[in-house]
Amino acid sequence: MIEPGQQKQQRNTGHAQQEAQDRIELLERQGGPFVAAVEATRMPMVVTDPTLANNPIIYANAAFLEMCGYERDEVLGQNYHFLGGENTDPEVADAIDTALGARRSINIEVQFYTKSGTAIWVAQQVSPVKDDQGRIVQHFSSFIDITHRKLTEERLRRLTEELERRVRTRTKRLEQANEQLKEEVERRAALEGVLRAALEDKQELVRQKVFMIKEVNHRIKNTLQAAQSLLLVQASGESSATVKDALQSAGRRLARLAEVHELLYRTEGFQTIDVARYLDVLCRGLLTSFSADPDQVSLSLEADEILWGPDLVLPLALIVNEAVSNALKYAFPQGRRGHIAVELHSAPQTLYRLTIRDDGVGLPDDRGSNSLGLKLIDIFAEQLRGSAVLRNDNGAVVTVTFPA
């Protein structure tokens, strides 16, 4: 059963809608193409009539209906404030009414709600429309959907707040860290004199160590050269060809030992030596020393990237020197062409394997285990805490295995 008050309200709404419909028909008759253009535009627009009670909507274009989700007959006769909701700022509606009451336009942002209850933000422009006598006969409103922009602004606001919170937290932590750092600096400043003195002592020890190494190296070099000279002098006075050849061979070995030693301690930063680079320089030096024809004898080197101290590198280099020298001297007689390969790689069980092989004539039986060359290689292998094996396999092969 409908109460009398409700009946009166329904009659008023129906009356307003009828009046709005009459005004629309009048607008369409008077506006012609203008009304058709407004209806077709994608910008939401409404026209209200301030001469009627509650300033009802008398025209809403299709874009406005699409924006708010209402049918036209649900909108006509309503004050457009009906689109407001729980989060709509009442001061916005007051600002619009105040501006229109003062007969001036207003641009303002407001939150509306569609028929489905979805909140949207719009930028609304409301302007009074005057007749020929200057009387305000209509209010014209246009809307731009700025929901995406508002959501972006809200996200930016939240991000800004979170950033500011993090900055405050980080600033507090930095202040605490700065205080701790200040205390640490003050504590360390008290030790500065002691540390400076210790550093100066260390630098002096390093200088003394470098000087001693250079002095020892110089004396070793002089001793080797003196021994070589004595052997050569002794050889020149020998009538026995066998003894003379043995003395000269020993002199050449001492000369090569001196060269290996000099090359090692001439290496920049010799306390840690790039083994592959050092062996490459050594092998190229041996080719030059024996005047090896590159069209007759070639040499290749493959080595892992290793940094070792001189205590390991020196016996390793002497093994390579002895094996490559023997290959250059004996493996390729009478202009025979051939190849010498030097390889140094890691092996299982934390071992390293050094292999020097050639494809020459191989080892004759009279140069077996009692030869001086193999004995020297055995001695140097023992210095590496390893073992050496000499065999024939399409040429001579020297294999030395030692722990890393």
From TrEMBL:
<dbReference type="InterPro" id="IPR005467">
    <property type="entry name" value="His_kinase_dom"/>
</dbReference>
<keyword id="KW-0067">ATP-binding</keyword>
<protein>
    <recommendedName>
        <fullName>histidine kinase</fullName>
        <ecNumber>2.7.13.3</ecNumber>
    </recommendedName>
</protein>
<keyword id="KW-0418">Kinase</keyword>
<feature type="domain" description="Histidine kinase">
    <location>
        <begin position="215"/>
        <end position="404"/>
    </location>
</feature>
<keyword id="KW-0597">Phosphoprotein</keyword>
<keyword id="KW-0843">Virulence</keyword>
<dbReference type="InterPro" id="IPR000014">
    <property type="entry name" value="PAS"/>
</dbReference>
<dbReference type="Pfam" id="PF13426">
    <property type="entry name" value="PAS_9"/>
</dbReference>
<feature type="compositionally biased region" description="Polar residues">
    <location>
        <begin position="1"/>
        <end position="19"/>
    </location>
</feature>
<keyword id="KW-0808">Transferase</keyword>
<dbReference type="InterPro" id="IPR036890">
    <property type="entry name" value="HATPase_C_sf"/>
</dbReference>
<dbReference type="InterPro" id="IPR000700">
    <property type="entry name" value="PAS-assoc_C"/>
</dbReference>
<keyword id="KW-0547">Nucleotide-binding</keyword>
<dbReference type="GO" id="GO:0005524">
    <property type="term" value="F:ATP binding"/>
</dbReference>
<dbReference type="Pfam" id="PF02518">
    <property type="entry name" value="HATPase_c"/>
</dbReference>
<dbReference type="Pfam" id="PF07568">
    <property type="entry name" value="HisKA_2"/>
</dbReference>
<feature type="domain" description="PAS">
    <location>
        <begin position="34"/>
        <end position="109"/>
    </location>
</feature>
<keyword id="KW-0175">Coiled coil</keyword>
<keyword id="KW-0614">Plasmid</keyword>
<dbReference type="InterPro" id="IPR011495">
    <property type="entry name" value="Sig_transdc_His_kin_sub2_dim/P"/>
</dbReference>
<dbReference type="GO" id="GO:0004673">
    <property type="term" value="F:protein histidine kinase activity"/>
</dbReference>
<feature type="coiled-coil region">
    <location>
        <begin position="149"/>
        <end position="208"/>
    </location>
</feature>
<dbReference type="InterPro" id="IPR001610">
    <property type="entry name" value="PAC"/>
</dbReference>
<dbReference type="InterPro" id="IPR003594">
    <property type="entry name" value="HATPase_dom"/>
</dbReference>
<feature type="region of interest" description="Disordered">
    <location>
        <begin position="1"/>
        <end position="21"/>
    </location>
</feature>
<dbReference type="InterPro" id="IPR035965">
    <property type="entry name" value="PAS-like_dom_sf"/>
</dbReference>
<feature type="domain" description="PAC">
    <location>
        <begin position="106"/>
        <end position="158"/>
    </location>
</feature>
